[in-house]
Structure formats: C-alpha cells, structure tokens
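Bench log, entry 3. Co-assembly request; chain sequences pasted below exactly as received.
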Amino acid sequence: GQSLEQPSEVTAVEGAIVQINCTYQTSGFYGLSWYQQHDGGAPTFLSYNGLDGLEETGRFSSFLSRSDSYGYLLLQELQMKDSASYFCAVRGPDNLFFGTGTRLTVIP
Amino acid sequence: DTGVSQNPRHKITKRGQNVTFRCDPISEHNRLYWYRQTLGQGPEFLTYFQNEAQLEKSRLLSDRFSAERPKGSFSTLEIQRTEQGDSAMYLCASRGDLYEQYFGPGTRLTVT
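Structure output for the full assembly:
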C-alpha cells in the first residue's frame, strides 16, 4: 500500500520561512511532487523531486531524501496569498498518490 | 486558468440518478487523469488515459463509474445510480511529457 504523512495545519507569520514535511511509504516510487490548493480552487503544481537534493523555484524550494523516504517544501518570504493547502504526492508510473494536505495560515 | 476545462462546474442530483461530467484537457497533452476529492482530503486517483486507452483504474472506481476518452481528446466520467457517498469534487488533470499535471477547476457533485 501507499501512505503519506504531513502535518495537518501550520501557522506562520508574513515574511517568515516555513517548512512542511512529508514522509511516505510506497512501492514503485518515482518522485515526490508538491501542489498548492487555495480554498475552492484546483491544485496547482509547485515542485517535483525525482532525485535526492534540493530544487529551488523562486520563493519555493523542495527537498527529497529517498533513503529516508522524506521530503519537505520550504516557503520563504511568506505572503498572505500563500495561505492555502499544500499537498505532497508520490509519483508512480502512471498516477499521483496525494497526502491529506497541510493547511498553511499566514498571519500578519 | 490552467487550460483544462470541466463541465458542469456544479451538479446537484437526486440519489439514483445518472450523471456525466466532461473534461477538456490541454490540446497537446496525451495523458488524462480523473481524481475525486472530499473536504479535508487530498485528491484520490480514479483513472488514467493515455490517448484513448484507459490504462489504469483505481479500486475506488466501482462498477457504477465509467470513463471514456473516445478520440484521445476530451473525456467523460459517468456515475450511474448515484449515492450520497458520491458527493465530492471530481477533478480532471492532463499531462504532457513532463511530470507536472495540470488540473481543471473541478465539478462539484452533490447527491441529495
């Protein structure tokens, strides 16, 4: 089977840095993706790690350690608009298996 | 707007009725996915098409659910004899050669 664990809620201050962790158990692992979803909106792609290490895309960075079955999403210079749900998702050969998401609230 | 469209955006139906949703993916994307999402959960994979071939179906997809992609372009998802437990957001996503899936806005189904 497959399982992912991520914190259900995180609160952070505008301008700060926040890290959202994700641990997974799965067979047939190809990589770890991160998606953002605002209330009432569709998931939008943020980042993908196929290999160990750090991927940086603007204010967002994502890290993967395959040996530890662990990854994280790092959000820097938080803005109010970053308040949303963030999902890690394990990529299999033909699909994505999503976690239950972390709801990030950015406060002034 | 990701370029993936879904219709209708909202559907209210009575238990036992059949419903059909449509997804129009990004035109050059040959891979198309259907997911279901309930409140407070992540999207759950339902089925996957590459061109017109349905290559994978989740065990979540009961016999009441059927999906088609007849010409390798748009796709339809039909639910027969709807049940209250089918109430959810149904999301469609398409993918090209890269890893990123582009999601449509979803169809919110309410079964009364």
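Chain A touches chain B at residues 31, 33, 41-45, 48, 50, 87, 89, 91, 94-101 (CB under 8 Å). Chain A has a mean pLDDT of 94.
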